[in-house]
Design goal:
mainly beta, 2 domains
């Protein structure tokens, strides 16, 4: 949020999202250099879209404009449909994950990465409120003499169906900063959920103020004289956006940091996908989602619906499987809802872009609908024992839920709420397959689906790695 104020706001017409880190150069004032976009999906429905574009402003500084646009409704209507509550709303969460020129906290001490942007209460010279989100939700106290930026008020960035975002960092030559920015749903009671995000980087290599090129190499070197136009003691540089990428991953470390510093708790009330199903004795339910980006992290869990079913039923077991149908992992009673209320697993999308899950009933840990039990006949006179197959006895309604771009469950247990409100938006689950496996029926032999080498993903990672050595800047002071 080391923000350089622009003279007007621009709204982008966002194009097709790219899989690549975007390389950008300087352009004229207001020009769109490159864009990304992605759908915001909740409970199988697209409820809006985030678009972000790199721009230059009147000061020839590079930065980011972004918008979330609700699909077919205003923001207030969306808040109602998502069940955010009377005080619920959307905002942005931003974290600085790397920089060689950190901000100073209120006491004037350099912040340590990763740090939330803005920090609680702001920085040494710039005011911010005491919530963890990027846009301020309250007014600056009149007694506070630090600067404030009106454009960074939530009310200033809310326009009907659109929530805006902008950040134009600035700083001295040779500085860099890397960001992750997420759309968040705040439920108004210090709990929140995350709806997707993007990452971006800026650097400053070209001097903005006059300097003397003593050695004639065409660039400014440390020690060469310069004209300190604004009197801040450093040679200011022109900021360039050097990377912009969608599909940022919200990690458990970020959730822990938000809770430690601000007291806000991460919950799982807005899953990407939610599927309702009924489990019968001896039956295994299977779920498959295709068309996803390979290696994308996800979390999945079951909700045994304790308010619908008799206590303790069904006791579900959740498993993840590769593209060939072979088991990867399984869990019983490890979900975020608490013991006996559901199972939970983290994983990553298969190489062919699929998530494959199965749900069975305890104690069937092999996902074939049965379990083995030792049965002994006769008393003291003998009779012998044998191992027999029995159907798992679990039956009842439950839900299977998936959240993309998260790597683990929130640390706080029993905090998952399921939003059953219908959302009037176009569906995106046409490629979802749900089927049942019953031990009494013939089971098809799994067909091996080859997992292609994700060359495109390797190229993306290669480009991303290149940027890790780039020098980027952000000075919010």
């Amino acid at each position: 949020m080391y923000y350089l104020k622009s003279s007007k706001r621009f709204f982008a017409l966002f194009g097709i999202a790219t899989l690549f880190d975007i390389l950008v150069g300087k352009a004229t004032f207001g020009a769109t250099l490159d864009t990304i976009n992605f759908d915001v999906i909740v409970n199988n429905k697209i409820v809006g879209q985030v678009g972000a574009s790199s721009r230059v402003n009147a000061e020839n500084e590079g930065g980011i404009f972004a918008d979330f646009t609700a699909t077919g409704r205003t923001l207030e209507q969306l808040y109602t449909h998502l069940g955010l509550g009377s005080q619920g709303h959307l905002n942005w969460f931003q974290i600085i994950i790397d920089t060689n020129f950190p901000n100073l906290d209120i006491q004037g001490n350099p912040l340590t990465v990763p740090y939330i942007d803005p920090p609680k209460g702001g920085t040494l010279n710039l005011w911010a409120d005491n919530v963890p989100w990027y846009l301020n939700e309250s007014a600056k106290p009149s007694a506070d003499t630090r600067s404030e930026i009106p454009e960074l008020q939530l009310d200033s960035q809310s326009f009907g169906s659109v929530l805006g975002y902008e950040d134009f960092p600035f700083g001295s030559v040779g500085r860099y900063v890397s960001f992750k920015t997420f759309l968040v749903a705040d439920f108004g009671n210090q709990t929140y959920d995350v709806l997707g995000g993007f990452s971006w980087q800026v650097e400053s290599n070209q001097p903005k103020e006059p300097f003397t090129d003593t050695n004639g190499n065409g660039i400014w070197d440390a020690g060469e004289p310069f004209t300190d136009t604004n009197g801040n003691g450093v040679l200011d540089g022109l900021t360039e956006v050097t990377a912009l990428q969608s599909r940022a991953v919200f990690t458990s470390a970020y959730a822990d940091q938000i809770e430690t510093e601000f007291g806000y708790t991460k919950v799982l009330k807005l899953p990407t996908y939610k599927f309702s199903k009924t489990l019968s004795a001896g039956t295994v339910n299977s779920f498959s989602k295709s068309g996803l980006l390979p290696s994308t992290p996800f979390i999945s869990w079951t909700d045994n619906l304790p308010n619908t079913n008799p206590s303790g039923t069904p006791d579900t077991i959740l498993g993840t499987f590769n593209s060939s149908g072979k088991p990867i992992n399984s869990n019983d009673n490890g979900g975020p809802l608490g013991n006996n209320l559901g199972s939970g697993l983290s994983g990553s999308v298969n190489g062919n872009g699929t998530i494959k899950l199965k749900v069975s009933g305890a104690p069937d840990s092999n996902f074939d609908g049965v379990y083995q039990e030792t049965v002994c006949n006769g008393g003291s006179g003998g009779g012998g024992c044998s191992i027999v197959n029995k159907q798992h006895p679990q039956s009842g309604k439950y839900q299977t839920l998936i959240k993309l771009y998260e790597d683990s469950f929130p640390a706080t247990g029993n905090n998952v709420g399921i939003n059953g409100r219908a959302i009037a938006a176009r569906t995106v689950d046409q490629d979802l397959l749900i089927w049942d496996t019953d031990r009494s029926k013939s089971s098809p032999t799994p067909v091996k689906v080859p997992e292609p080498i994700p060359a495109l993903g390797l190229l993306v990672l290669g480009i991303w790695g290149t940027f890790q050595g780039l020098k980027i800047i952000k000075d919010k002071q």
